[in-house]
Amino acid sequence: MIPGFSTRRRFSELSERDILALAISSEEDDARIYRSYAESLRADFPASAAVFDGMAVEEDGHRRRLIDLFTARFGDVIPLIRREHVAGYYARRPVWLVENLGLERIREEAAGMERDAHNFYAAAAARTTDAATRKLLGDLAAAEAGHQATANALEAEHLGDGVRDDEASAAHRQFILTWVQPGLAGLMDGSVSTLAPIFATAFATQDTKTTLLVGLAASVGAGISMGFTEAASDDGQISGRGSPVKRGIAAGVMTTVGGLGHALPYLIADFWTATTVAMVVVFVELWAIAWIQNRYMETPFIRAALQVVLGGVLVFAAGVLIGSG
Fold this sequence. Notes:
The chain is mostly helical. It is 77% helix and 1% strand.
């Protein structure tokens, strides 16, 4: 391809035939997306899965109406024109990305899809001269705008009698089990377990570069170990704790972050300045852990703070004593 030259066409350059073909492929894609959402939710949130099944059926109806109009005007051969072929046309986020963000995020994405579709049909209808085509595109724009009412009706049908509250509670519990719990364990491990080697090295050598290297090695090594341990310990099938990959990422990343917090201050060349900053960071880390325990694990804040701070102080003292000896 010639540099600076795009093979994609502008929306303003599309003929009515192209616009109808683009609408058909877009409806096909949206129906597939809704069915993918439904399938990903079916095991844990069957009522919400039924809502997305219903929305997919509606998209199928739109596609059939568009195909009928296309064949009546232009024949049976529909050119393949997709979103990615049109410059500036709205794109859909990858299904796998949205699926991994939870039930409410999926609902928000679906609402955004309907807004995008409405804007497309409104713009397409404005560029159409054929009366039948203009009417259909206008009807579809109105239908997409009214999909929120349809979604509300489907939700009333499938999510009544406290089902939505139950699903929200289940989604929150799954978030805690899959992300918060392993992430908190990792943050605690990274923040507390690396205190001894980092501060022992610091007080033994009083060399910031050496301390930094030890801190980096301890933090990254602990993160890798914690991540693999969490991922391998439970496949989530029986415990319901969710994907081992997600849990491993949460645990590994937060373990590394916990250790790096008080290792990176040793980028400062002056030993006592770096150590003072590192101590302040440790204090912030420990209180952050206590806050997360209180916020998500419903542990009384005072009890959480006492447990975390006491453990951190003991490990810190051990590191200082060993390094000073």
